[in-house]
Amino acid sequence: MATEVSKLEKDLKANGVALIGIGPEETGVKEFKDGGFFKGDIYIDEKKQCYKDLGFKRYNAVNVIPAAMGKKVREIASKASAEGIQGNFSGDLLQSGGMLVVAKGGEKVLLHFVQKTPADNVPLEEITKALGISANVQAGEKPQCNEDVCTR
């Protein structure tokens, strides 16, 4: 999701919109930034208070396995791999996320998205529509998956 939304960075900046990420911990942040996976500023919320406030759920040992093994997750993993993005399994793997888009000044919520599964993300068109801007980027190609394999 971070790499996909980062495709909007130039259009966001041109329209005075800041791209900000909030991570749950310092683990992996340097590697994440050095890898260019996110083009905005990154802040850390180790207490995960903003995650709680925004309704981002936390998985547990019982519900993380089915969520992580689903077809949609395999599609996203295949898409990431095709774009040269390799994941690691360090850090907090149980925290889900989402996206919050607010108007200048923070008084009005334009978009509040909560992941239901680890593969959920907001289409770029939905983000630009919420902001009332246009963008000259193309969303990444979604792989085609069946129960056994994902292909481009």
UniProtKB/TrEMBL annotation:
Catalytic activity: prostamide F2alpha + [thioredoxin]-disulfide = prostamide H2 + [thioredoxin]-dithiol; prostaglandin H2 + [thioredoxin]-dithiol = prostaglandin F2alpha + [thioredoxin]-disulfide
Pfam families xrefs: AhpC-TSA_2 (PF13911)
Protein name: Prostamide/prostaglandin F synthase
Enzyme Commission number: 1.11.1.20
Keywords: Cytoplasm, Fatty acid biosynthesis, Fatty acid metabolism, Lipid biosynthesis, Lipid metabolism, NADP, Oxidoreductase, Prostaglandin biosynthesis, Prostaglandin metabolism
GO cellular component: cytosol
Family (UniProt): Belongs to the peroxiredoxin-like PRXL2 family. Prostamide/prostaglandin F synthase subfamily.
Subcellular location: Cytoplasm, Cytosol
Catalytic class of the enzyme: oxidoreductase
Species this chain originates from: Labeo rohita (Indian major carp)
GO biological process: prostaglandin biosynthetic process
Chain's role: Catalyzes the reduction of prostaglandin-ethanolamide H(2) (prostamide H(2)) to prostamide F(2alpha) with NADPH as proton donor. Also able to reduce prostaglandin H(2) to prostaglandin F(2alpha).
InterPro entries registered for this protein in UniProt: PXL2A/B/C
Molecular function GO terms recorded: prostaglandin F synthase activity
